[in-house]
Amino acid sequence: SSPAIGGAVIAIEVTSAGKSRIDFVKTEDDGRYRFTTGDNPSGRTVVQAFYDGDATHGGSQSGFCAFLVK
């Protein structure tokens, strides 16, 4: 497991109804963050998180998380 990075900026890409947007969140001291997608049209929504890295940590990205909005 990697050490937590507090204050890191995470880019969240949300794709829904054929349109994508990128939102940004900042991690807590323990490396955790919370993101709410807001209002999305009905249908499949896909979310993926990205961290660009910094001087001492490499960048990374999550897998895709897909869900249906009713």
Q: What do you see in this structure?
A:
This protein is mainly beta. 0% of the residues lie in helices and 46% in strands. Strands 1, 2, 3, 4 and 5 form a five-stranded antiparallel sheet that branches. It is elongated and about 40 Å long. The protein is built from no helices and five strands.
Shape: elongated
Helix-and-strand structural type = mainly beta
Could you give the count of β-strands? 5
Largest sheet, strands/sense/barrel: 5 strands, antiparallel
Radius of gyration: 13 Å
Low-confidence stretches: none
N-to-C span: 36 Å
How helix-rich are the residues, as a percent range?
under 10%
* Percentage beta strand: over 45%
Order of helices and strands: EEEEE
Mean of residue pLDDT values: 91
Helical segment count: 0
Summarize the structure.
With 70 residues, this protein is mainly β.
Structural descriptors:
single chain, 70 residues, mainly beta, five-stranded antiparallel sheet, 5 strands, elongated
What's the SSE blueprint?
Elements: E1 9-16, E2 19-26, E3 43-51, E4 60-61, E5 65-69
